[in-house]
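FW: tagging you since you asked about this chain on Friday. Here's the raw sequence from the shared folder, copied in full. Didn't touch anything.
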Amino acid sequence: MTLAQQAELFRNAVARHFPDGTRVTRPAGGHMLWIELPSKVNALKLYRAALEKHISILPGTLFSASGRYRNHIRINCGNRWSETHDRALATLGRLCERIA
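HL: got it, structure written out here
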């Protein structure tokens, strides 16, 4: 499976599991997806809640010296797709609803 195919599987899972208003990048290359969550979701709080579930994401504020990207996360889609990834993304989607 190519990286592009894996990225598309991750993107489709985000579309299924995350709240309405979520937007996902379509990278030209690489293995990271940027996800813009609805403005009410605090990515740092989501990061902490995800860690408790053993799910690793990066909050967007880590990539801004000015505190931008408060409702953005970055996820790795470089690992071979599995049902474990689908379950983790479903959990993240539920956490977005709870944290908002």
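FW: DSSP finds three helices and four strands in the chain.
HL: agreed, and The first helix runs from residue 3 to 17.
FW: great, closing this out.
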